[in-house]
Amino acid sequence: MATLLPNGKQQFEDANGNPLAGGFVYMYVPTTTTYKDTYQDSAASILNTNPIVLDSSGQALIYGSGIYRQVVYDSGMNLIWDQLTSSTDVGGLAEAHHHRGVVL
């Protein structure tokens, strides 16, 4: 069975649909401010910075495994969102189901 593939490169936008050029994406262990590693490649060989600094198009390559607390800010450090997200592998989906309803 085939499933939808996520975008290879993610783009982040503000409430008006404008790219978050120079914005920041923090990736944490859920319910904490403990950084959780993400990568620029599917082999997990190129570590992202944390925070991830978005390019001029508001884009970044973000690979990971499991569940994350994703906190996104614009370039002026105004909070855009603070949400849980998870990888699409079996471990990520199962972990996301387990954490459903967790208070961030």
Map the helices and strands.
Blueprint: E1 10-11, E2 24-28, E3 52-53, E4 59-60, E5 67-73, E6 79-86, H1 90-98
Antiparallel strand pairs: 1-4, 2-3, 2-5, 5-6
Summarize the main sheet: 4 strands, antiparallel
State the helicity in percent bands: under 10%
Write down the oligomeric state. Answer: single chain
Q: Strands of the largest sheet, in order across it?
A: 3-2-5-6
Distance between the termini: 34 Å
Structure annotation, total helices: 1
From the helix content, strand content and strand pairing, which structural class follows? mainly beta
Secondary-structure element sequence?
A: EEEEEEH
Low-pLDDT runs: 92-104
Radius of gyration: 14 Å
Percent in strands: 25-35%
Arithmetic mean of pLDDT: 84
Q: Got a strand count?
A: 6
Gross morphology? globular
Characterization of the model:
The chain is mainly beta. It is built from 1 helix and 6 strands; from the N terminus they run E-E-E-E-E-E-H. It has one helix spanning 90-98, and strands spanning 10-11, 24-28, 52-53, 59-60, 67-73, 79-86. The strands form 2 sheets. A 4-stranded antiparallel sheet has the order 3-2-5-6. The protein has a two-stranded antiparallel ribbon with strand order 1-4. The protein is globular, with a radius of gyration of 14 Å.
